[in-house]
Every structure is written in C-alpha cells, then in structure tokens.
Design goal:
Number of strands: 2
Shape: elongated
Helix content: 55-70%
Low-confidence stretches: none
Number of helices: 5
Strand order of the largest sheet: 1-2
Strand content: 5-15%
Radius of gyration: 14 Å
Distance between the termini: 28 Å
Largest sheet: 2 strands, antiparallel
Structural class: mainly alpha
Mean pLDDT: 86
Amino acid sequence: MLDLLQRIYAATASGPNAEAQRMVLTDLLAHVLATQALAAAAARGERVTSANVRNWIDAIAGYPGVTLEQVAREGGGSITVGDRAEAIANHLLKIAVWNG
C-alpha cells in the first residue's frame, strides 16, 4: 500500500487541482484498505468485528505510515486513512451479508 500512496503523491504533485485529486485518491485508498481487510478475513474464515477490524486494516496496509496519512475533508479538517478505512469497514460490517 505504501507504493500506492507514493503513486498518489507523484500523480498529484502539482497542478491547480492537485489537492482535490489527492483528497479523492487517498479516500479511494481507504476504501481499498477496508475492502481488502474484509476480503482477507473472509478468505481465512475469520470473524471480523468493529473491535478487531483496525488490526486487519493495519495488516493489509503493511506500513504504519499508510494508515497515519491524513486525508483532507471537504468541509475542512482531516482524518487519517486508517480511521477512514475503519469507518468504511464498520459500515460494511453492518450490512447483513457481512454479519456473523
């Protein structure tokens, strides 16, 4: 995932919309982390809960700097990629398909 994060920064290094593009791409990175974490757990037959989903996300990220990267929010402020991925995964865990 570190390679993907570095590619995001390289692709959005300059230009009038660089920050907006980076915001979208890092949010997509959070979505990828969330879905890969759930997929990895499902492939192993493990039960994922809101209490342990962050462990799966951190394991998939492979490098702590990825999950600690800040994602700007439209209304201002920021959230880390890991926190955003955790929120996405927890939302997906509420869907009946992932329960149990």
